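Contributing new records

If you add data, match the layout below exactly. Sequence lines come first and carry their own label; structure lines follow with theirs. Keep one chain per record. Anything else will be rejected by the validation script.
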Amino acid sequence: MDIIALLAQEDSAGSPIISLGILLLIPAAMYFLMIRPQRRRMKEQQSLQRSIEIGDEVVTTSGVYGFITGEDGDKFWLEIDDDVQIRIARAAVQARVTTDEPAEAPSDDTAKTDGQ
Protein backbone atom coordinates (compact mmCIF):
# COMPACT_ATOMS: atom_id res chain seq x y z
CA MET A 1 0.00 0.00 0.00
CA ASP A 2 2.86 2.37 0.52
CA ILE A 3 3.65 2.32 -3.21
CA ILE A 4 0.10 3.34 -4.12
CA ALA A 5 0.21 6.20 -1.62
CA LEU A 6 3.53 7.40 -3.06
CA LEU A 7 2.17 7.31 -6.62
CA ALA A 8 -0.91 9.29 -5.55
CA GLN A 9 1.30 11.95 -3.95
CA GLU A 10 3.44 12.26 -7.10
CA ASP A 11 0.37 12.79 -9.30
CA SER A 12 -1.03 15.48 -7.04
CA ALA A 13 2.30 17.35 -6.90
CA GLY A 14 1.84 18.77 -10.44
CA SER A 15 -1.82 19.51 -9.95
CA PRO A 16 -1.49 22.81 -7.99
CA ILE A 17 0.75 24.28 -10.69
CA ILE A 18 -1.72 23.37 -13.41
CA SER A 19 -4.64 24.67 -11.37
CA LEU A 20 -2.83 27.95 -10.75
CA GLY A 21 -2.09 28.26 -14.46
CA ILE A 22 -5.73 27.75 -15.36
CA LEU A 23 -6.84 30.26 -12.73
CA LEU A 24 -4.46 32.85 -14.21
CA LEU A 25 -5.48 32.00 -17.76
CA ILE A 26 -9.20 32.65 -17.21
CA PRO A 27 -8.90 36.40 -16.39
CA ALA A 28 -6.43 36.89 -19.24
CA ALA A 29 -8.81 35.21 -21.68
CA MET A 30 -11.72 37.31 -20.41
CA TYR A 31 -9.71 40.48 -20.95
CA PHE A 32 -8.74 39.66 -24.53
CA LEU A 33 -12.09 38.16 -25.55
CA MET A 34 -14.55 40.46 -23.76
CA ILE A 35 -13.18 43.60 -22.14
CA ARG A 36 -10.71 44.77 -24.80
CA PRO A 37 -13.14 44.53 -27.77
CA GLN A 38 -15.86 46.29 -25.74
CA ARG A 39 -13.50 49.17 -24.91
CA ARG A 40 -12.57 49.47 -28.59
CA ARG A 41 -16.27 49.64 -29.59
CA MET A 42 -16.92 52.27 -26.91
CA LYS A 43 -14.05 54.44 -28.16
CA GLU A 44 -15.30 54.17 -31.75
CA GLN A 45 -18.83 55.10 -30.66
CA GLN A 46 -17.57 58.10 -28.68
CA SER A 47 -15.48 59.37 -31.58
CA LEU A 48 -18.49 59.02 -33.91
CA GLN A 49 -20.70 60.97 -31.50
CA ARG A 50 -18.08 63.73 -31.21
CA SER A 51 -17.74 63.99 -35.01
CA ILE A 52 -21.47 64.44 -35.75
CA GLU A 53 -22.16 67.82 -37.33
CA ILE A 54 -25.23 69.79 -38.33
CA GLY A 55 -26.63 68.43 -41.58
CA ASP A 56 -25.53 64.81 -41.04
CA GLU A 57 -28.10 62.07 -41.48
CA VAL A 58 -28.03 59.73 -38.48
CA VAL A 59 -29.90 56.81 -36.99
CA THR A 60 -30.59 56.67 -33.27
CA THR A 61 -30.37 53.65 -31.00
CA SER A 62 -34.16 53.35 -31.19
CA GLY A 63 -34.08 53.24 -35.00
CA VAL A 64 -35.23 56.79 -35.80
CA TYR A 65 -33.63 58.27 -38.92
CA GLY A 66 -33.23 62.01 -39.32
CA PHE A 67 -31.02 64.98 -40.04
CA ILE A 68 -29.17 66.93 -37.35
CA THR A 69 -30.46 70.51 -37.45
CA GLY A 70 -29.01 71.93 -34.25
CA GLU A 71 -26.82 71.28 -31.26
CA ASP A 72 -27.50 72.20 -27.66
CA GLY A 73 -24.63 71.08 -25.43
CA ASP A 74 -24.91 67.32 -25.14
CA LYS A 75 -28.20 67.22 -27.06
CA PHE A 76 -29.08 67.38 -30.75
CA TRP A 77 -32.13 68.57 -32.60
CA LEU A 78 -33.12 65.86 -35.06
CA GLU A 79 -35.47 66.61 -37.96
CA ILE A 80 -37.41 63.42 -38.65
CA ASP A 81 -39.94 64.90 -41.12
CA ASP A 82 -40.80 68.27 -42.63
CA ASP A 83 -41.25 70.69 -39.73
CA VAL A 84 -41.00 67.86 -37.16
CA GLN A 85 -37.99 68.06 -34.86
CA ILE A 86 -37.16 66.14 -31.73
CA ARG A 87 -34.44 66.66 -29.18
CA ILE A 88 -32.21 63.64 -28.52
CA ALA A 89 -29.20 62.98 -26.35
CA ARG A 90 -25.83 62.80 -28.06
CA ALA A 91 -25.42 59.27 -26.68
CA ALA A 92 -28.58 58.19 -28.55
CA VAL A 93 -26.86 58.55 -31.93
CA GLN A 94 -25.95 55.05 -33.06
CA ALA A 95 -24.52 55.64 -36.53
CA ARG A 96 -24.11 58.13 -39.33
CA VAL A 97 -26.11 57.13 -42.40
CA THR A 98 -23.95 56.80 -45.47
CA THR A 99 -25.44 57.68 -48.81
CA ASP A 100 -23.32 55.32 -50.90
CA GLU A 101 -25.65 54.46 -53.74
CA PRO A 102 -25.09 51.10 -55.41
CA ALA A 103 -24.36 51.00 -59.10
CA GLU A 104 -27.51 50.88 -61.18
CA ALA A 105 -28.46 47.51 -62.57
CA PRO A 106 -28.51 47.37 -66.36
CA SER A 107 -31.95 47.77 -67.87
CA ASP A 108 -33.61 44.98 -69.84
CA ASP A 109 -32.76 46.65 -73.15
CA THR A 110 -29.02 46.72 -72.50
CA ALA A 111 -28.94 43.21 -71.08
CA LYS A 112 -30.18 41.68 -74.32
CA THR A 113 -27.70 40.79 -77.03
CA ASP A 114 -28.09 41.65 -80.71
CA GLY A 115 -28.86 38.05 -81.71
CA GLN A 116 -32.04 37.81 -79.62
